[in-house]
Specification:
24% helix, 543 residues, seven-stranded mixed beta sheet, alpha+beta
């Protein structure tokens, strides 16, 4: 099968594409406004002005900005700007379109991918982006292993890259990998200069790498700020972009501001120009009055509790399922989030291609939860918290994200006799605790605009977030990775999703959405296909 060659200026609305690409056409635009690199702010007809600095606030410094290693959303906001990818994903249609690769062919079983690179593209140090350098990147990601937590999973089964000529390469897998084409659009498989492969992971985390995108790392002061500067001569934007040529901005300064109230105050006072981390309660003040809001639902695995089933408490299926039944998801949205947000209706967010709606299994059912716990021998104590064989039904979740949703979950679960203690810490401490393995439940989301994210997280043959032995659901998940027919793949994803919820392996809570809040002087700051921030077409009014 072959995708048609598409070059700059040729933008058909819907080209005939691969079966694997067709899986992505169902990706919705998430109900949020805007998309692509168009102007998202007021004054959309204004003529872009080159130059200036855009000051953007992030919440945390995860101590790494290497695109091939990062997984934290704030770090991704930085890293995404510094690398180009082989392909891009159109934010409006979900279609995979050319970027550094002008065209590609995929074998019938999706185990072999051949890419034809555009000419003239270079890394920020002037090194040509050729087939050999792509091979170096993919080999290096595999060598990083778990350090490249996302990219290494996208390359599971990687047998190697064969270079036919400077502009042609073939990537082979030991088994079908229907997710790989979309993976080539992600920052995790974004391309770094070959010299970057010789750096240590720590050096790359510190920003010493050389990328292929419209911006490069100018400076990185931990826990304070990261400054990106425009790459001179950049002229290889993707076909998902309206803008061509160099980025408009001279620099983008990412300021680390952990406190929500301080971020809101900094935006209101003009100390920063924009952020994607304004608390729900503060958003109304930035809806007009010299500011604008733009929101997009993140595809991928929704925010949820992940039971570690090798622990005694989370190994009890009755406990896991009761916790799921005891969560009033809509109340969380109505109380601590915004009208733009959505309660989880499945393991995957509704904006993910082929996501299954499991609203029937996620309905609030405290009576059913109590019945499950009663039958399993968990008896309410004097303070209302249940006990069994001398053990209290109490556990602690360690996390660094916004505490408000979990604080409401805590209140809801107490009504069914579950004591959920919350430990809100810095991201480094949270990571250390999780690496120690001493916990019952994890809590996070993972953004990706492909349903394979479900397999990556839950399969006993992949990350195995539940730390459990293989069972029926893993066969379904693994088969979905080999399915190139959209109907077959969708059925496998739905069956697997249902089993994950029915057995309490997944406890979805709410869907992550990203809301940009910005001053009216900011234009063109938008979302790319995976709801990652895109600064390439952004510009600011002259001061």
């Amino acid at each position: 099968m072959t995708t048609p060659t598409r070059r700059r200026g040729a933008r058909p609305a819907a080209a005939a594409t691969l079966a694997t690409t067709a899986l992505l056409l169902a990706a919705c635009s998430s109900g949020g406004s805007g998309g692509g690199s168009g102007d998202a702010s007021t004054g959309g007809d204004a003529e872009p002005v080159a130059g200036g600095d855009l000051r953007f606030a992030i919440t945390v410094d995860s101590r790494c900005i290497d695109p091939q290693q990062v997984g934290n959303n704030d770090a991704i906001a930085v890293a995404r700007q510094t690398v180009a990818s082989l392909t891009a994903q159109d934010p409006g249609t979900g279609e995979i379109v050319p970027w550094l690769a002008e065209s590609w062919e995929v074998s019938d079983d999706a185990s072999s991918y051949t890419f034809h690179l555009r000419e003239g593209a270079t890394y920020a140090d002037g090194t040509p982006i050729d087939a050999e350098s792509v091979k170096t990147n993919f080999d290096a990601i595999v060598a990083l292993g778990a350090t490249a937590s996302l990219g290494s999973q996208y390359l599971v089964g990687y047998e190697g890259t064969t270079v036919a000529d400077p502009q042609t390469l073939t990537v082979d897998f030991a088994q079908p990998s229907a997710q790989f084409l979309q993976a080539t659009s992600t920052f995790s498989l974004g391309l770094l200069s070959p010299a970057s492969a010789d750096l240590t992971p720590e050096e790359r985390c510190a920003g010493d790498y050389v990328g292929s995108g419209p911006f490069q790392v100018d400076s990185y002061t931990q826990d304070q700020e990261i400054v990106l500067s425009r790459v001179d001569g950049y002229d290889w934007s993707s076909e998902a972009d309206e803008h061509t040529g160099e980025a408009y901005l001279d620099t983008v300064t990412f300021q680390v501001i952990p406190e929500s109230s301080v971020r809101a105050g900094s935006l209101a006072s003009g100390q920063i120009d924009a952020t994607a981390a304004i608390a729900a309660v503060d958003q109304p003040q930035f809806d007009g009055n010299g500011f604008w809001l733009q929101q997009r639902a993140n595809p991928g695995v929704a925010y949820q509790l992940f039971p570690k089933e090798s622990s005694p408490l989370a190994s009890d299926e009755a406990v896991r399922v009761a916790i799921s039944k005891g969560i009033d998801r809509q109340q969380i949205v109505d109380t601590v989030l915004t009208e733009r947000d959505q309660a989880a209706t499945g393991v995957l967010s509704h904006s993910t291609p082929l996501a299954a709606d499991l609203g029937d299994l996620l309905a609030y059912d405290p009576d059913g939860a109590e019945e499950l716990l009663d039958d399993a021998g968990w008896v309410a104590g004097d303070d209302g918290i249940r006990e069994k064989d001398g053990q209290r039904l109490s556990t602690t979740v360690t996390f660094w994200q916004d505490p408000a949703p979990l604080e409401l979950v805590q209140q809801q679960l107490r009504q069914i006799g579950v004591d959920l203690q919350l430990q809100h810490v810095e991201i480094a401490e949270s990571t250390a605790i999780k690496e120690s393995g001493d916990f019952d439940f994890d809590y996070y989301n993972l953004t990706r605009s492909d349903p394979d994210v479900l397999r990556l997280i839950f399969s006993a043959n992949a990350r195995n977030i539940n730390d459990r032995p293989a069972e029926e659901v893993d066969d379904l998940l693994d088969r979905s990775a080999a399915a190139t027919d959209p109907d077959e793949r969708g059925q496998l994803i739905e069956e697997a999703s249902r089993l994950l919820v029915e057995h309490g392996h997944a406890i979805p809570v709410y869907e992550l959405s990203t809301t940009i809040a910005a001053a009216d002087r900011v234009h063109g700051l938008a979302f790319e296909g995976s709801s990652r921030l895109d600064f390439y077409g952004a510009w600011v009014d002259p001061s």
